[in-house]
Specification:
- By secondary structure, the protein is mainly beta.
- It is 14% helix and 37% strand.
- The protein contains 1 helix and 20 strands.
- Strands 1, 2, 4, 6, 8, 9, 11, 12, 14, 15, 17 and 18 form a 12-stranded parallel sheet that branches. An 8-stranded mixed sheet has the order 3-5-7-10-13-16-19-20.
- The longest helix is centred in the C-terminal third of the chain and has 24 residues, at 148-171.
- The radius of gyration is 15 Å and the shape is globular.
- The termini are close together.
Length: 174
């Protein structure tokens, strides 16, 4: 069973059709929208500020979503993909964007709709990842504009695929 726990009088709200892996952890002031998936060993920790996650968002294995006390809540939009072992901390991820595997997105960052943070990138505090661009490196910088093929493959298909993947686990009773 996933760990779903109240912290400081605030309990997570989990939307209809959202699936949590057995080892997922969701704590405190967290709102998860509909048809989301939170995968194995992912942690969403709303203990020191709020975390709001829209619909059809996937938080993949080992990812950490947190916030900063009295400073930075975390807001994640609809159809967002957060890759394996990524860290998303006190930032805003607008609709239809992606944070790649092992990437780190720091406090007060805004990742605009239609943007990609590449695997392993580190987006420094307060930066904006612009729509239509892939940002990569440490610190993350614009690498290249997103092609129509990448937009379809990463930003449109990945959330659809994760809705499908979660159905496989729901069907087996996990």
């Amino acid at each position: 069973m996933p760990v779903i726990r109240e912290i400081n009088g605030k309990s997570p709200h989990i939307g209809e059709g959202t699936w949590l892996a057995e080892t997922a952890v969701v704590l405190g002031d967290v709102t998860l929208g509909e048809d989301c998936s939170v995968w194995y060993n992912a942690i969403i920790r709303g203990d020191v500020n709020s975390i709001h996650i829209g619909n059809r968002t996937n938080i993949q294995d080992g990812a950490v979503v947190h916030c900063t006390y009295k400073k930075a809540a975390t807001v994640i939009g609809n159809s967002v993909s957060i890759g394996h072992n990524a860290i998303v901390h006190g930032c805003t991820l607008q609709d239809n964007c992606m944070v790649g595997m092992g990437a780190i997105v720091m406090d007060n960052v805004v990742v605009e709709s239609g943007a990609v943070v590449a695997a392993g990138a580190v987006v420094s505090e307060g930066k904006t990842v612009k729509s239509g661009w892939i940002y990569a490196g440490i610190p993350a910088r614009p690498l290249k504009e997103i092609s129509a093929e990448v937009r379809e493959a990463l930003l449109e298909k990945t959330p659809e695929n994760y809705v499908m993947y979660k159905s496989w686990f729901e069907e087996t009773g996990f």
